[in-house]
Amino acid sequence: MRKFIVALMLVLTLGTCAFAASEFDEVWLVTADTTAKGAAGQVFVQLVQEKVKQANAGLVIDYFPNGELGGDADLLRQAQKGYIAIMLCQTAPVVSFIPEVAVFDLPMVFARYDGDTIDKVLNGDSTFHQKISEAYERAGLHLLGFMQNATYRLTTANRDLQTLSDFKGLQVRTMENKNHMDFWMAIGAEPTPLPWAELYISLQNGTVNAQENAADTCVGAHFEEVQNFLACTNHILYCNQICMNDKLYKALSPEHRAVLDKAVAEALTEMRPKLEEIDKSNKDILIKGNMKMIEYDNSFFSDVLDIQGVKDLYKRIDTATNGLANVLVDSLAAAARQSAPSEPAPAPVEEAAPAPTEEAPAK
Predict the structure, then answer these.
(1) What is d(CA 231, CA 211) in angstroms, rounded to the nearest whole number?
(2) Which among 93, 222, 347, 360 could bridge 72 via Cys, Cβ 3.0 to 4.6 Å?
């Protein structure tokens, strides 16, 4: 009876069915995302759902995938207000709600690290994890975790992009995101936002001669039919975040919080090799489609990060995120030193003078 009353009070207080009781002994958490059937995000949430069920603790994940309850921004607003309990999406849409998440726009900040090192920083006991979690709480959300395994957005092009100079004048379609566009301009390319529906034909007729996306997206769009090169620029980490309404999370019993946290942690661990396999298998498909894959060593990423325009972008994002960019760089370097003490640490973000926080870019 107590669990039913607690859940009912939350429903009446928040005006929502995100957290509801059934038959006096179950707590249901409405969970939603926009991921397509079979996509990594959906597989992940289903894993969490199954693990929570197996715990047999009276907690239920009521899952609505594929945009059934709205787009990413809609779902984030619903989670903030408690209309739903849990939502999953990539990091880009979250910036409009939590400005600190713009640290994921730092170009190539993760490119020199493996999945284990990145996971220690994003999901482990790091200063960065602590501070990004606090930012979520200020927005009325509780961070449950980040899903990644050192897979990235890549660049497909009709130009052999072997060196930095090869990017000069490259007309590359990208999201209408100021940080992303400033990065491409800093390395000499010409970023050109285009609607997704127009991209294939634009690549085919030469309106633009490059684009950037994760490998599975490139395969889904059949870009191997209109592009010759697959450049592993690794400029943005392919990462999903999962979060929950903070009041609802804190209202869960300690037992239910433990069940949910354990289910998410285990699902994140199980998904990591799956993400690596998805990335590899899709790269193989693109290569079999006669695309030539270009890979870079750490010196390429170091050269990019040494460009003044890229340094300026880092400083601007650091200012806009209240110093969190510097914290991320330092946390990654510290985690890498623990794994390989002889590896030189990357230079920290230069301190920036205080400036007004810019409006978060749209996805």
Answers:
(1) 10
(2) 93
Integer CA distances (angstroms), 46 to 17, 154, 244, 265, 274, in order: 20, 27, 16, 13, 14
Sheet with strand 210-214: strands edge to edge: 190-191, 171-173, 210-214, 152-157, 229-237, 292-294
Query: What does residue 221 show for φ and ψ, rounded to 5 degrees?
Result: -90, 0
Per domain, the residue ranges of the chain are 2-97+139-147+240-278
pTM for the model? 0.86
Contacts of 184 (CB under 8 A, 6+ apart): 167, 170, 172, 174, 190, 191
> What are the strands, taking DSSP E only, across the chain?
19-22, 26-33, 59-64, 86-90, 141-147, 152-157, 171-173, 190-191, 210-214, 229-237, 240-245, 292-294
How far, rounded to the nearest angstrom, does the alpha carbon of residue 267 sit from its chain's CA centroid? 16
CA–CA distance, 49 with 345 (Å, rounded to integer): 39
Can you say whether the dihedral through the CA atoms of 63, 242, 244, 258 is positive or negative? positive
Query: Tokens in use for 226?
Result: 């209109």
* Strands annotated E in 51-95: 59-64, 86-90
Distance CA 279, CA 4 (A): 44
pLDDT one-digit tens code per residue, 14-35:
444 566 554 447 999 999 999 8
**CATH says 2-97+139-147+240-278 is which class?**
alpha beta
- Structure token digits, residue 357: 């926080």
What residue ranges of the chain have pLDDT lower than 50? 1-16, 22-24, 343, 352-363
Measured distance CA(184)–CA(19) in Å, rounded: 44
Return the pLDDT at 352. Answer: 44
